Amino acid sequence: MTRLLTLLVAALLALPAAAEAQKPIKVGMPIPLSGPAALFGEPASKGAQMYVDELNAKGGVLGRKIELIIRDSKADANEAVRVSRELILKENVDFLVGTLTSAEGPAVSVVAKENKIVFIAPIPKTDQLTAADKLHPYVFRVAATTTIEGRSAAEIVSKWPVTKVATIAFDYAYGQDVTKAFVDYIKKIKPSVEIVDQQWPKLGEQDYNPFINAMMAKKPEAIVSSIWGGFFVTFSKQAKALGMFDAIKFNFIGLGEAGSPETTKSMGADYPVGIWGNSYDAFYWDESSPAHRDYTARISKYLKDEYPSSWAIQGYIGMQFLAEAIKKANSADSEKVSKALLGLTVDTPAGKLTIREKDHQANRGQLYGKTLKEAKYPFAIMKPVTYVDPTKFMD
Amino acid sequence: MTARPSPHHFVPDLSFVFAQSLSGLTAAMFLFLIASGLSLIFGVLRVLNFAHGTFYMLGAYAAYQIVQWLGTGPVSFWLSALGAALGVALLGGIVERLLFQRLYGKEELYQLLFTYALVLILGDAAKLIWGTQQKSLSRPPGLSGAVTMLGATIPYYNLFIILLGPAIALGFWFALQRTRAGRLIRAAALDRETLGALGVNVNALYTGVFVLGSFLGGLGGALITPMRAIVPGMDTDVIVEAFVVVVIGGLGSFWGTFLGALIYGQVLSFGILFFPRFSIFSIFALMAAVLIVRPWGLLGRPLR
Amino acid sequence: MSLRRIPWAALVFVAALFVPALGTRYYTFLANDVLIWALFATSLNLLVGYTGLVSFGHAAYFGIGAYTTGILMKKAGVSFLLAFPAAGLLAALFALVFGFFCVRLTRIYFAMLTLAFAQIVWAVCFKWNEVTGGEQGMPEIPYPDFGWIDRVAAFVPVLGGYRTAEQFYFLTLVLVAVCLLILRRIVGSPFGRMLATIRENPERAEFIGVNVRRYELAAFVLAGAFAGLAGGLFGIFNRGVFPDFAYWTKSSEVLIMTLLGGMGAFFGPALGAAVLIWLNQQIVSYTEYWPLVLGTILVVLLFVFPGGIAGALALLLRRSRRGVARA
Hints:
The complex is a heterotrimer.
Chain A: H1 2-22, E1 25-31, H2 38-57, E2 66-72, H3 77-89, E3 95-97, H4 104-115, E4 118-121, E5 139-141, H5 146-158, E6 164-168, H6 173-189, E7 194-199, H7 209-217, E8 222-225, H8 229-241, H9 244-247, E9 252-254, H10 261-267, E10 276-279, H11 290-303, H12 312-329, H13 334-341, E11 345-348, E12 351-354, E13 367-372, E14 381-387
Parallel strand pairs in A: 1-2, 1-3, 3-4, 4-5, 6-7, 6-8, 8-9, 9-10
Antiparallel strand pairs in A: 10-13, 11-12, 13-14
Chain B: H1 14-45, H2 52-70, H3 76-98, H4 108-130, E1 146-149, E2 152-155, H5 156-178, H6 180-190, H7 192-197, H8 202-224, H9 234-249, H10 254-274, H11 279-293
Antiparallel strand pairs in B: 1-2
Helix pairs in contact in B: 1-5, 1-8, 1-9, 1-10, 2-3, 2-4, 2-8, 2-9, 3-8, 5-6, 9-10, 9-11, 10-11
Chain C: H1 8-17, H2 25-50, H3 59-75, H4 80-102, H5 107-127, H6 129-132, E1 138-139, H7 147-153, H8 164-188, H9 190-200, H10 202-207, H11 212-237, E2 240-241, H12 248-261, H13 268-283, H14 290-304, H15 308-326
Antiparallel strand pairs in C: 1-2
Helix pairs in contact in C: 2-8, 2-11, 2-12, 2-13, 3-4, 3-5, 3-11, 4-5, 4-11, 8-9, 8-11, 9-11, 12-13, 12-15
């Protein structure tokens, strides 16, 4: 009788603990699902979801499943803040992984700081996010930065037989910062380079003809652009029609992921094959690790796409770091997880990445390459495509 | 702030000026094509149709879809443009007949808000059907080359648009002046009550005007696809520009819209040379300036 | 037993005092949001419902107010006591300048010019990196100094033990209540009645010697001032000020709230704000297609309930009273 009672009491005592253990770990993901940035945000959210689904199938982390709550931030800093606060206050999320634009990132970072919740940014590139005066214990980034991107481009362009370079970028933080990083660094490594022109179309410009004409009038030998997404498609269609790429002999590098499979795929025959571009991921990355090939097979199946998006990987990596940190900290408490993230190395599909303690920034580089047309695919690809290690650009 | 090269050593030569003005002309004619539908609807129905930009976007998506079905042949682009415009026109007709007509007696605000509701609903519908990924169409074979004039490269497609604008303007002007339907439309713009009293089926006329305006909007969207990406959000981008063009020219004035488009196109083109990095202000500064100095626009009638 | 005699507003105010006591931080957050938007929407209604002027650019003053308070408190370290009224003052100033040009126009032209001015304000906020923080805005606006509450709480214990967010909520509640009271007074005054006359028939008002433009400008400035105050509060509540505060989508949101609640009733827009915010956060947990839902609601509203919720309620009340009278 006493044994039965003891068992009963033990079971009753264990119940809340078991219930506690069964409660899922909630992760909030504010990310653009509408508007021009949705083309990056939506696949990123799917990449994150795939990681979560796979992890949960293996039993989750620390015996608990992860519940990913995705909300549309509309690529608007204000909306991202609102949505993040709702996620924290209403849905009681334990962590935040998300945001996309360089305005959303720092804005949500403040929310994370005030609520003492770990926030991992998988896409915003602005240096502001991890700058000394904005850094706090709870913000982390697994994306590249404008400094990394600008300097990587400078290194590539410095190897071209050109001295007259023009830049074209959107007139807002991202465009201004990446252009500045490029200009400052290339002047350092190849002082003979002259910036002959800089064009600053407004964010969301639809008619690039005047800018292209103005740029070409200065007769540049190379052009560095950071026009992104659907805007790059619009820009390059107009530029191609005006013969811009031919005039500069395709000495063009399209930052802002103009070399991504999404862009080349959507443009088909209109893509200016022969330009350089970058991308976070490429399913055709031949020299990649077995881990990457495995990931590509899985994401291709998950997205039901033979040529899967290059943005899913960032959502995936963001969640991967979070899960690994939870495991290392052996807790889902933000205080402990934030400490676990410092110096954490994770074997991601893009290679081994480490979040350095100094500024909570991972050494995430991107793939760069010159595009060409291969019979194997109905669209252009970057070949050879190289992963540019960002470590030397990070200071 | 990055150090910018001084433009002092740059002397614009003839070929550059020519290229810029042709850019401005191309942009202008596109805008005219789109804004003409807006102007027509406002002139007769006295309603500023916010959903006009959405019809433009739907025209673009529809053209893309039809090309997917027809494949890429020599005429598939033109067929898809026509098909898209007709599809959008049909949608406009249905919306007007079933819903919009019931708001005619009511306050202007309600009509405006209804068109805004259409923007929300149709915009999301487009996202549901076609997703968020960007889409793109190529220029039709036959118009994919370019010609060199005065040292500047002018794409054939741009020339086509530059010629299409005035062609449509003239065609419309002719139809409005010479045909019975045109006369009725002009009469309805001036005095709808009398027209109704004279026994004309004003409701049918309104539907017709709305259908025609939507057709133009959809056609604009379909024809712009070789030059721009098809993405969510393209509806709101264009509607503001269309508003400005119509306001500059004069709400309700057809040739005013044409003139407004021309002016706006050139302001954009050369504005980036004189005021680089201020193009974000151009549209609204221009609109405010016109509304303050001459609210009825260049060719409009002083409307009190 | 007349429903009208019940002091609804006072009851709501008292009920609102107990929101933080409900336990979860979320309800305080939501209620705070609703209060600010209620003020914003009511300020717009002064223009739309009472004067008959449809503005598409009311968010400009909201944004100006927010940036004023934000810049003063964050960059200049100014106290909230000064920064808050400054928001209203600066917004009123801009409303005076912009309004001067706008009231010379009517109907659609008026609306377009308000939109143009609002977009110019947005563009300035977006580009002026040095002052407004540019496109990234100004995240991290400090809360007002609530140290005095803790000192007073030593004597009045019921005031103690609240989190900063809750203290700010009470502050918002009091300030919004005061602003709404003032607006109510304005609307009921001879000035307010003159506005109604102008809305009914501007030509007739002109005919009987009223300087319509001056009244309209006054209404414009007042509406702008209170929108600025709402903005000042929102910048702090939102923990950051961003250029999109002045973007036309904000203007359309507040316009829809006003319509939803009912332009004919004073508390209509406030009701609309509450319903729309609540509905928004309910729907987004199920679908990302909130615009589709909102558009449909708008259509239903326009065709079936043009008087908004307040209008529908009033209709219901009248019907039930008629029924009672007959019985």
